[in-house]
Design goal:
The chain is of the alpha+beta class. The protein has one domain (about 25-190): Cyclic phosphodiesterase (Cyclic Phosphodiesterase, Chain: A). It has helices at about 35-50, 75-85, 115-130; strands at about 25-30, 55, 65-75, 90-95, 100, 105-110, 145-150, 165, 170-180, 180-190. Strands 3-1-9-10 form a four-stranded antiparallel sheet, with helices on one face. A four-stranded antiparallel sheet has the order 2-7-6-5, covered by helices on one side. A hairpin with a 4-residue loop joins strand 5 (about 100) and strand 6 (about 105-110). The longest helix is centred in the first third of the chain and has 18 residues, at about 35-50. The protein starts with about 25 loop residues before the first strand and ends with a strand. It binds adenosine-2'-monophosphate.
Length: about 190
């Protein structure tokens, strides 16, 4: 990760054409951890790496995807922000207590074995707003998770200290694949009530 990530502020007119900005962005809405949560997730990533190997995600890239949009014209950023503006959801505590591994994409992750109702309300309100605006969302019915390892062999999950996350906001983020790995940028942040 080579991008600033969490603190990027809302910028008016993000959809104005600029010569230095790409025409399309790979976009997703996500929960983006505060510093303490990020450190805890990063420690778990180190622990899982000792057991499973692979490539650790850089601490600053760690996040939990709520809705994945994929390649999207940059001109739709304000439209997407307007969708997120309509979402009313409460802050909540999320316990990430379940290490896991998917063979098909060689990802090692820490996920939530149970989610509070506020999580489901946030995810479904956001997805509903996006779908009503005509966006096709890959809703990912799988366990909510933070990817910690890529290209990992996986194996028997080791015991992990749960990471307790006080979720107070969500973000719209962009990812870009570059030679040295994925770069992520937080475009805008919305507070939960
Ligand atoms: P992953 O970490 O499980 O791969 C940016 O790529 C974020 O979007 C990552 O959190 C990634 O999840 C997620 N993502 C990538 N492709 C996706 C898809 N087709 N559906 C849902 N989420 C996706």
């Amino acid at each position: 990760m080579t991008e600033p990530g969490p603190a990027a502020a809302a910028k008016p007119g993000l959809n104005q054409p600029r010569p230095d900005k790409p025409d399309t962005l790979r976009l997703f809405f996500a929960l983006w951890p505060d510093d303490t949560t990020r450190d805890a997730l990063n420690r778990t990533g180190k622990w899982l790496h000792q057991h499973w190997g692979g490539r650790r995600m850089h601490a600053d890239t760690l996040h939990l995807t709520l809705a994945f949009l994929g390649s999207t014209p940059a001109g739709q950023l304000d439209d997407l922000a307007a969708c997120a503006d309509t979402v009313r959801a409460d802050a909540f505590e999320l316990a990430l207590d379940r290490p896991g591994y998917w063979r098909h994409n060689r990802i090692g992750w820490l996920g939530a074995s149970r989610t509070p109702p506020q999580y489901a309300e946030l995810a479904s309100a956001l997805n509903a707003a996006l779908q009503a605006a005509g966006y096709s969302i890959d809703a990912r019915p799988q366990v909510p998770h933070v990817t910690l390892l890529r290209n990992t062999a996986g194996g028997e999950p080791p015991a992990c200290v749960p990471v307790c996350w006080s979720v107070g906001d969500f973000v719209l983020a962009a990812s870009r694949t570059e030679a040295e790995g994925a770069r992520y940028e937080v475009i805008r942040r919305w507070r939960l009530t």
